[in-house]
Amino acid sequence: MTETLSTPAPLGAPPPRETLLEVRNLRTSFRVLDGIVPAVDGISFSLGRGQTLGIVGESGSGKSVTAMTVMRLIDIPPGVIGEGSEVWFDGRELLSLPLREMRRIRGNEIAMIFQEPLTSLNPVLTIGDQIAEQVELHLKVRKKEAWERSIEAIKLVGIPSPERRVKQYPHEMSGGMRQRVMIAMALSCEPKLLIADEPTTALDVTIQAQILELLKTIQQRTGSALMLITHDLGVVAEMVDNVVVMYTGQIVEQGTVEQVLLEPRAPYTMGLIESIPTVEKRGGRLSVISGVVPSPFNLPPACRFEPRCPYRWDRCRRVEPDLYPAGPGQVARCHLHTPEGEGRRQAALETHRANMTAGRAFGKSR
């Protein structure tokens, strides 16, 4: 298992060859009428070749903006990418590339599955035309070959009668079928990195399972890396190697999937996991994280989770926490992991373990 936490290369230096994607100190904000909204605030992570990374958090935590910035799909203006931000992909720094070169990479070497396929597909073009257009653009093949590759892509994702389906329009397909089309389009040029942004949100449970199994099968077959953005920790437990947990644009915890789900070290992560309904909680009161996500225009002065944290103390209101070591290859943005917080940390871990009854939510899933 590749650990998420590693010593990043110095700014301006490419990462090691085995690292496919490395994000360093990424800051993305938006200028609006009321001021500047910090959507992503200084995050860093890496993804190895063939590995799977999960990015989780509540709505508004900056997950999708992170992916859109990596793809350079942020409109500038109103978007602003901060100085010192770097995104390295396969030895190239994407944020400094000319737009023409980035267009060659986007859809070819990096592909993205968007959250809502109906709004992502062109309603006036057939499925085959949309896939073939991308193949023609990036692989420089003739229309006939591009059309044949469209049929092969549809067949790869398990859609029956692909010769007939490629001639249909998006509205003629179900939600699950459209999501398969989005996956087929993303895979048509055999990308090195696949970014899936909430790929199962609008689907029923049965179709969700089919789509996730499809992603796993295709990743194993092609050897591509996968960055999975989701708020569903059950999906994370089944799909990923490493996890990044985000809150208000910052990383609050990262580590392997076993570390983060079975032995979380940040109070926010503990709260997310404790709020998952389980058989043991049937008939009882569900756990919740108190309060709401703060407005980006009125963030707490120190720890951003402090107003909602059951383990806060005076230091949390005065000093902004860093990402502290919390285990082998695991970090957490919490003062509990400073020498001053040692006693409180042990009490918090014991409380979490009691609440989770030894992690039954995930213990049998992998």
Would you summarize the structure shown here?
This protein has 366 residues and is an alpha/beta fold. Helices cover 33% and strands 21% of the residues.
Describe the protein's architecture and organization.
It is globular and about 70 Å long. α8 (205-222) links the parallel β8 and β9. An 8-stranded mixed beta sheet has the order 7-8-9-3-10-11-13-12, sandwiched between helices. The chain is 33% helix and 21% strand. With 366 residues, the chain is an alpha/beta fold. The chain has helices at residues 63-70, 99-105, 117-120, 127-139, 143-156, 162-165, 175-187, 205-222, 233-239, 257-262, 267-274, 314-318, 342-356; strands at residues 19-32, 35-48, 52-56, 79-81, 86-89, 92-93, 110-113, 193-197, 225-230, 242-247, 250-256, 324-327, 330-332.
The dominant shape is globular
SSE succession: EEEHEEEHEHHHHHEHEHEEHHHEEH
Pairing-aware structural class of the strands and helices? alpha/beta
Q: Which residues form runs of ≥5 with pLDDT under 50?
A: none
Largest β-sheet summary: 8 strands, mixed
- How are the strands of the largest sheet arranged? 7-8-9-3-10-11-13-12
The number of strands is: 13
Structural topology:
Layout lengths: L18 E14 L2 E14 L3 E5 L6 H8 L8 E3 L4 E4 L2 E2 L5 H7 L4 E4 L3 H4 L6 H13 L3 H14 L5 H4 L9 H13 L5 E5 L7 H18 L2 E6 L2 H7 L2 E6 L2 E7 H6 L4 H8 L39 H5 L5 E4 L2 E3 L9 H15 L10
Parallel strand pairs: 3-9, 3-10, 7-8, 8-9
Antiparallel strand pairs: 1-2, 1-4, 1-5, 5-6, 10-11, 11-13, 12-13
Helix pairs in contact: 4-5, 5-7, 7-8, 11-13
